[in-house]
Amino acid sequence: MGERRIGVAISDPERRLAVPLRSIDRREAQGREVEAIAERARSEEVTELVVGLPLTLSGEEGPQAQTTRDFADKLAVLGMPIHFWDERLSSREAESYVSGASRGRDQGRRGGRDKQRAREADTDAIAASIILQSFLDHERLNPGGMA
Fold first, then answer.
1. Distances (CA, A) of 137 to 15, 28, 76, 116, 120
2. Which residues touch 98 (CB under 8 Å, ≥6 apart)?
3. Is 19 within a domain?
4. CA-to-CA distance for 133 and 144, rounded, in angstroms?
5. Does residue 147 lie in a domain region?
6. Predicted local confidence at residue 84, as pLDDT
7. What is the CA angle 68-69-73, rounded to 5?
8. What's the chain look like in SS3?
9. Residue 52 CB-density burial (10 A; 0-12 exposed, 13-18 middle, 19+ buried)
10. Residue 9 is part of which domain span?
11. What is the CATH number of the domain that holds 125?
12. pLDDT, tens digit, 9 for 90 and up, residues 91-125
């Protein structure tokens, strides 16, 4: 969950593979982010949520982690379990993936600003899928364990 966008990903029903979805632009949502997430959750038949928790590199929770927890409290109205998962370095990994992938694409399709916005949205959704995949892998390798 960033200040401008909320990356969204989903897993397959077997909980093996995370796939990025389109990010939610917080400016476009105009304070209706929870409703946007609820709508996607209903349409995709989601039963649990995983929220990336921004920890410091030393593993401590800072002010952004509290902001994330406060937002997750609002998501509780959806009535489904919410799991927090360490998101450290997920954005950097996603940026690396997107920049590597964009070098192989045709760069002439969009103007500079539009291209940059699309890349940022892709990065947020990809970062969400990285967080979710890490959670799914941990759950699969530690059945019944604490997340």
1. 9, 33, 24, 31, 25
2. 119, 122, 123, 126
3. yes
4. 17
5. no
6. 97
7. 115
8. CCCCEECCEEECCCCCCEEECCCEEHHHHCCCHHHHHHHHHHHCCCCCEEEEECECCCCCECHHHHHHHHHHHHHHHHCCCEEEEECCCHHHHHHHHHHHHHHCCCCCCCCHHHHHHHHHHHHHHHHHHHHHHHHHHHHHHCCCCCC
9. buried
10. 5-141
11. 3.30.420.140
12. 667 667 666 655 555 454 555 555 555 555 588 89
Amino acid at 140: R
More confident residue, 107 or 86: 86
Domain count of the fold of the chain: 1
**Could you give the CA distance from residue 100 to residue 104 in angstroms, rounded to a whole number?**
7
